[in-house]
Amino acid sequence: MRRTRILTVLLALAAGLLAGSPAAASAAEPAPRADVAADSYTWKNARIDGGGFVPGIVFNRTEKDLAYARTDIGGAYRWQEESHTWTPLLDHVGWDDWGHTGVVALASDAVDPDRVYAAVGTYTNDWDPTNGAVLRSADRGASWEKTDLPFKLGGNMPGRGMGERLAVDPHDNDVLYLGAPSGHGLWRSTDAGVTWSEVTAFPNPGNYAQDPNDTSGYASDNQGITWVTFDESTGGGAGTATRTLYVGVADKENAVYRSTDAGATWERLTGQPTGYLAHKGVLDAENGYLYLAYSDTGGPYDGGKGRLYRYATATGTWTDISPAAEADTYYGFSGLTVDRQRPGTVMATAYSSWWPDTQIFRSTDSGATWSQAWSYTSYPDRENRYTMDVSSSPWLTWGANPAPPEQTPKLGWMTEALEIDPFDSDRMMYGTGATVYGTENLTNWDAEGGTFAVEPMVRGLEETAVNDLASPPSGAPLLSALGDVGGFRHTSLTEVPSMMYTSPNFTSTTSLDFAETKPDVVVRAGNLDSGPHIAFSTDNGANWFGGTDPSGVSGGGTVAAGADGSRFVWSPEGAGVQYTTGFGTSWQASTGLPAGAIVESDRVNPATFYGFKSGRFYVSTDGGATFTASAATGLPAGDGVRFKALPGGEGDVWLAGGAADGPYGLWHSTDGGGTFTRLPGVDAADTVGFGKAAPGASYQTLFTSAEIGGVRGIFRSTDAGATWTRVNDDAHQWGWTGAAITGDPRVYGRVYVATNGRGVIYGDTSDTGGGTDPGPGPDPTPTGACEVTYTVTNQWPGGFQADVRLTNTGTSAWNGWSLDWSFPGGQEVTRMWNAEHTQAGTSVTARNVGWNAGVAPGASVGFGFTGSRSGTNAEPEGFAVAGRACPTAT
User: Fold this and answer.
1) Which sign does the torsion angle of CA 331, 351, 99, 481 carry?
2) From the record, what ranges are coiled-coil (predicted)?
3) Distances (CA, A) of 533 to 286, 530, 764
4) Alpha-carbon span 3 to 890, nearest angstrom
5) How many CB atoms are located within 10 Å of the residue 420 CB?
6) Active-site residue, from 39, 49, 72, 296
7) What is the CA radius of gyration of the chain?
8) 328, 540, 576, 830: which could form a disulfide with 475 (CB 3.0–4.6 Å)?
9) From the candidates 231, 339, 484, 744, which is the catalytic residue?
10) CA-to-CA separations, 372 to 291, 363, 380, in angstroms, rounded
């Protein structure tokens, strides 16, 4: 959302993606494999609604109400018209492929609306260890197949708001084009995205980089081929490739190319403007106009000058249709759309107008004349053609009270995605750096004195990067530290909080903590362009006041609150470790602990604090004044570590982290960090947290994001790490989950998971407890003592998606299971996850996979599938386990 978005991701990288990259345990210190059980969890987002940059919105051109949105680090979404919500589509992306949560382009097939494609990859430099890929789906994103590419893609790179770089031929939908960055040129598939090859005849791979001197490779990357647009009026009929297509290139002198022979040969469009990059190229085939939005930079933050042009495809005539003189622009143009129901209506955005607001322009005469969303009456007073209602996401006001001409809430910033619904002239959506806004009475704009209503259209789309999490024993159940939007106090997980943390409002909160025995006392540290980098609350995070920075502080770092709230230890960026009594009006330098160390507090003894830096563990018993290095050895050598002390257990510390080239796993200390024991069977671990103990258990529930038993996932232990249960599944992985994790001290089994772009995920168990997780044992044949929950989660013409939960209601554990049912309407399973299946006619059998064979009494296991249907989608008439009827839950 703000200019700091890249800093959020870099922080995550520094914290773990580089120092603790996902890999197996060190060869020098092998860990025995652990036996892992499985539990069926229900997963949801703690609602924030939005919170990040939405650079692309794509409507299908032949099916009403079918639309998709892409984010720069948080995956892709499909619009649900019935509920006016977004459904996430890439939650299956796992740890090793975390970069595939960055989406650089989307394409929805106009010939077969069930098909959708996503070009994925987050960075083109070495921050992302994997190459990009093209994902293809035949069921609207319910399931995907992947083709890896021989180069990287940059969903979070400069220029990511240009596009779309991926396009499906509207006549021969087996043909797709993809514009590549980094000098890799234009690519084509002729088999519906299965295989790709470079279009060697395309003459220009681009040459523009935001900053050619950037040694990190981030801003110095060639932004490459930026969009592909077909002229559907030049098709030869169904199954015959469209003859004319246009391609945008990141080259200020040669920005637009055309082919008139289905991509065999290419030419630079003559007479085109120079000195600018073409962010978008949108064709109005009925009137024969290609509209182009130009900026002097690639965005999404920058852009100081811009133009709008119209190209007549029949005559080759170029017309400058800009709504403002070049000298009067202080922004570039990027958002661009035409009204398919009203040819000649075109809209564009001044995407880089940060102050006082973004601007949206509208023309109903093909760009001859324009009106704008707001204008000055007498400076600084504004007249708006719109009204805004953000009551569904009230934090979008930022708690601000700006002076005119600035207003709150703003229309937005980084407004590169702008689309009029091709079936409804009254509906328009546009993406910002913080949300998706929309209107359903857009044509009111054209009436004399009329106003159109703008409101968030973002529910279900969660795009925050999470740096830290806390769940106090009283007060709000969840406190979060987030990139870009600071963080929230959730008093209800199912409602959007009224405001992010303010007074001060950090651009990113890097760390937070509460006093364990006095949880109304909360501290947070974060980044701010000017102002304090630390803040305190005495009412459980409801209200805040800023502390005073020691000299040299440049960033938030990590912070810890003493158990009774009487003192704090802070390890900020730019200065050494500091400690204070009271609320940070005066700080003193700690001794014995290196600058940049991670700090935490003991949750019982208010004078005890802990630190970690470069493989050494440190302890302070005098409130953070002095630290002494522990004698513990064998800990991870780098700084990709997170550790926490157990609530209620003095000196009980758990440490997770490591790297592929050294120790990597989970360690436990019961003597205040004097010694640590590595847990066997944990191949790798990156976070650790605690929740309410299971019924009858003597130790709090442990949670970790880890690799255990050769499987990456989110794990729970109710017996101090002796046995583990995987609580997520292959459909719920969320890419990188290495920043933070915590259980809930008030709800057994509940876990809060930090993601790097999908917000705060929380899960609730179907397990009723029982003290310990089931380990391997006898292999009893499952009986009919079971119950099934069958839920259709989504359906569309010809297809559907369903979730199944199977509960063991008997008294013996299962070590292997199968579930049988028959479809009454001729449905057919096309793909199943978290179970294997066979189908003969209408009869289906689903069987466990290796990791979810064990199901304890009272526990459940879940799986899902997509299917085809030709008529109604009635639920199965009955279920059976081992030949015995298994009733459905009511």
Assistant:
1) positive
2) none
3) 56, 9, 34
4) 50
5) 25
6) 72
7) 28
8) 540
9) 484
10) 18, 9, 17
